């Protein structure tokens, strides 16, 4: 099959090279955005009288037919054509003849793929923002149901002070809120039109980039053509925001895994979101949470991958940048699937308020409150801290609870002044 760029070549491409350089296996999912970009581009070419209106109409009709063929599964993609862009353009030319060859006037695959990726991410970020919002609502609803449920709060994974389960859960609401802000801010830099930059130096044709931006709903246009085709900061920023989000989901998953352990017994996960063991009949494993925790590493790896790809590239476009898409696609799919499954699981989980209350009653969690009480009575905080620490030690040595201290002290005072003094 003759390459659309093959005019200056004497020999055909080796199959091993075709296989090695093809990106169709993953960039095929950009087809919708590739067609949308082409539609806007050809409308602009006709408006600017760069191509004849009748040719533009043929191209638009052909692109619409190709879109319908892909949607219905009748379109046949070929690896020999390297990528989604060449597949669509080749099919267009076969469908409408020479007019199809005019579609690529005043553009390059360099600005074309940058456009497609930005359009894709714009949609996906909007979808991720909605999923985060839904999960936040689930957390709020769960918190409202447990507004009076007391549980131990921890520092250094040691019992620290009593807190409300609602307060604990809403800490993750705050994390997710910052995640939303990061994605919203990232979206501003994604939402920049690169089309019109061509390969790197723009074009001599009298194009109208503002018109294309209006058609594609881009609020701003790239200022430098070399930067526009070689920039993947928006990809790095997206995967970075996704990594932070996944770190938050992983922390939550870890806590629920711990709480689900029968040594804690704070929560029981629904059967529909757990799995069993192939050998131990009694097991009920929190695989959904473990996978969320594990998939976080994939997203972190995707961030390191794209950073490594971009770190040494000279201006402008280099084929290395083909390696940007798989990390992006995998990150999108991973983030969305984790948010979706946690949002579905949480309302079906059962929190054990009694076990949380009982746990909060052990471990001297009210020691800080006692120290603050003494301060309010006029004792310096360091002295109050020391006195309270001595009380805790007294209780530990006698295997007593903090609540038993007052009655024990009264009893010892009655037994004699020397012992009471001790």
Low-confidence stretches: none
- What is the helix tally? 17
Succession of helices and strands:
HHHHHHEEHEHEHHEHHEHHHHH
Mean of pLDDT: 93
Sheet with the most strands, sense and barrel status: 2 strands, antiparallel
The proportion of residues in beta strands is under 5%
CATH topology of the largest domain: Fumarase C, Chain A, domain 2
Q: How many strand units?
A: 6
End-to-end Cα distance, whole Å, is 96 Å
Rounded to an integer in angstroms, the radius of gyration calculated over CA atoms is 31 Å
Structure description:
This protein is mostly helical and 422 residues long. It folds into 3 domains: 6-102, Orthogonal Bundle (Fumarase C, Chain B, domain 1); 109-206 and 218-359, Up-down Bundle (Fumarase C, Chain A, domain 2); 363-421, Fumarase/aspartase (C-terminal domain) (Ribonucleotide Reductase Protein R1, domain 1, Orthogonal Bundle). The protein contains 17 helices and 6 strands. The chain has a two-stranded antiparallel ribbon with strand order 1-2. Strands 3-4 form a two-stranded parallel ribbon. Helix 7 (165-190) runs antiparallel to helix 10 (233-260), helix 10 runs antiparallel to helix 11 (287-310) and helix 10 packs parallel to helix 12. The model has no long low-confidence stretch (mean pLDDT 93).
Keywords for this entry:
422 residues; mainly alpha; Fumarase C, Chain B, domain 1; Fumarase C, Chain A, domain 2; Ribonucleotide Reductase Protein R1, domain 1; 3 domains; two-stranded antiparallel sheet; two-stranded parallel sheet; elongated
């Amino acid at each position: 099959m003759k390459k659309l760029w093959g005019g200056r070549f004497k020999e055909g491409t080796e199959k091993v090279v075709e296989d090695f350089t093809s990106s169709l296996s993953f960039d095929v999912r950009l087809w919708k955005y590739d067609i949308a970009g082409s539609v806007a581009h050809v409308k602009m070419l006709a408006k600017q009288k760069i191509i004849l209106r009748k040719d533009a109409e043929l191209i638009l009709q052909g692109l619409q037919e190709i879109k319908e063929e892909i949607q219905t599964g009748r379109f046949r993609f070929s690896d020999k054509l390297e990528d989604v862009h060449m597949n669509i353009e080749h099919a267009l030319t076969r469908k409408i003849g020479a007019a199809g060859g005019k579609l690529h006037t005043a553009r390059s695959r360099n600005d074309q793929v940058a456009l497609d990726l930005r359009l894709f991410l714009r949609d996906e970020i909007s979808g991720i923002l909605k999923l985060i919002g839904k999960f936040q609502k689930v957390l709020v609803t769960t918190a409202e149901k447990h507004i009076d449920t007391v549980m131990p709060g921890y520092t250094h994974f040691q019992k620290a002070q009593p807190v409300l389960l609602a307060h604990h859960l809403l800490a993750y609401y705050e994390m997710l809120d910052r995640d939303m802000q990061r994605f919203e801010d990232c979206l501003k830099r994604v939402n920049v039109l690169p089309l019109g930059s061509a390969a790197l130096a723009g074009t001599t044709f009298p194009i109208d980039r503002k018109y294309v931006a209006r058609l594609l709903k881009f609020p701003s246009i790239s200022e430098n053509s070399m930067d526009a085709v070689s920039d993947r900061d928006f990809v790095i920023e997206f995967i970075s925001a996704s990594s932070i989000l996944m770190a938050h989901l992983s922390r939550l998953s870890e806590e629920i895994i711990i709480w689900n352990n029968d040594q804690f017994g704070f929560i029981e996960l629904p059967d529909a979101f757990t799995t069993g063991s192939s050998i131990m009949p009694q097991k009920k494993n929190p695989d959904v949470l473990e996978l969320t925790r594990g998939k976080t590493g994939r997203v972190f790896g995707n961030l390191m991958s794209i950073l490594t790809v971009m770190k040494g590239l000279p201006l402008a476009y280099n084929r290395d940048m083909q390696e940007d898409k798989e990390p992006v696609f995998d990150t999108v799919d991973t983030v969305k699937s984790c948010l979706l499954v946690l949002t579905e699981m949480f309302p079906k989980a059962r929190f054990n308020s009694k076990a949380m209350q009982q746990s909060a009653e052990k471990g001297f969690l009210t020691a800080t409150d006692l120290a603050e009480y003494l301060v309010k009575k006029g004792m310096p905080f360091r002295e109050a801290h020391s006195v309270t620490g001595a009380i805790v030690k007294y209780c530990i040595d006698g295997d007593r609870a903090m609540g038993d201290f007052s009655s024990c002290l009264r009893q010892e005072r009655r037994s004699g002044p020397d012992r009471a003094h001790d």
